[in-house]
C-alpha cells in the first residue's frame, strides 16, 4: 500500500514539474508537444504505421504464431505432467499428512488456550 502511495506521489510530482518548470522557453510538456507535432515526427509516425499494417508484417506475425504454437502446447503439456506427478508423489502424500497433523495440533493448542482463558479469573 505504501509503495502505491509513494509511486502515485512520484507520478504527481513529475507531472507537476513537467508542466510548470520551464526548461528554456518551454516546459518539458511544451517541448514534448512541439516535438510530437513537428513535421519530421508526423512523417515518422506515418512510416511506422504503414510498415506495421503492411502485408509483409502481417505474414511475419502469422508465421511467428504458427511456429510458436507447437512450443507453447509442448510447454503446457510438460507443466501439466509435472503438476500431475507432484500430486501423485509420496512427498505430496507426506505433505498432506503433515498438514493435517499440523492443523490438528493448531486446533488443539487454540482450544487449550481458550479453555485456560475461561478458567482464569
Report on the architecture of this protein:
The structure is a single chain. With 121 residues, the chain is mainly alpha-helical. The chain has helices at 2-20, 28-36, 39-52, 55-88, 90-119, and strands at 22-23, 26-27. It has a two-stranded antiparallel ribbon with strand order 1-2. Strand 1 and strand 2 (26-27) form a beta hairpin. The longest helix is centred in the middle third of the chain and has 34 residues, at 55-88. The radius of gyration is 31 Å and the shape is flat.
Proportion of beta-strand residues:
under 5%
Helix share, percent: over 70%
Report the count of strand segments: 2
Lateral arrangement of strands in the main beta sheet: 1-2
Sketch the topology as an H/E string, one letter per element: HEEHHHH
- Tell me the Rg in angstroms: 31 Å
Residue windows where pLDDT falls under 50 for at least 5 positions: none
Distance between the ends? 41 Å
Largest beta sheet, briefly? 2 strands, antiparallel
Average predicted confidence as pLDDT: 83
Outline type = flat
Task: Tally the helices.
Answer: 5
Please state the structural category. mainly alpha
Amino acid at each position: 500500500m505504501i509503495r502505491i502511495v509513494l509511486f502515485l506521489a512520484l507520478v504527481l510530482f513529475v507531472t507537476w514539474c513537467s508542466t510548470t518548470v520551464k526548461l528554456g522557453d518551454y516546459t518539458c510538456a511544451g517541448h514534448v508537444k512541439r516535438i510530437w507535432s513537428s513535421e519530421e515526427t508526423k512523417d515518422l509516425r506515418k512510416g511506422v504505421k504503414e510498415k506495421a499494417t503492411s502485408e509483409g508484417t502481417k505474414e511475419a506475425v502469422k508465421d511467428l504464431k504458427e511456429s510458436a504454437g507447437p512450443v507453447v502446447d509442448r510447454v503446457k503439456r510438460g507443466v501439466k505432467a509435472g503438476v500431475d506427478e507432484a500430486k501423485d508423489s509420496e512427498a505430496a502424500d507426506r505433505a498432506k499428512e503433515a498438514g493435517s497433523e499440523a492443523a490438528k495440533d493448531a486446533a488443539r493448542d487454540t482450544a487449550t488456550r481458550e479453555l485456560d482463558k475461561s478458567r482464569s479469573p
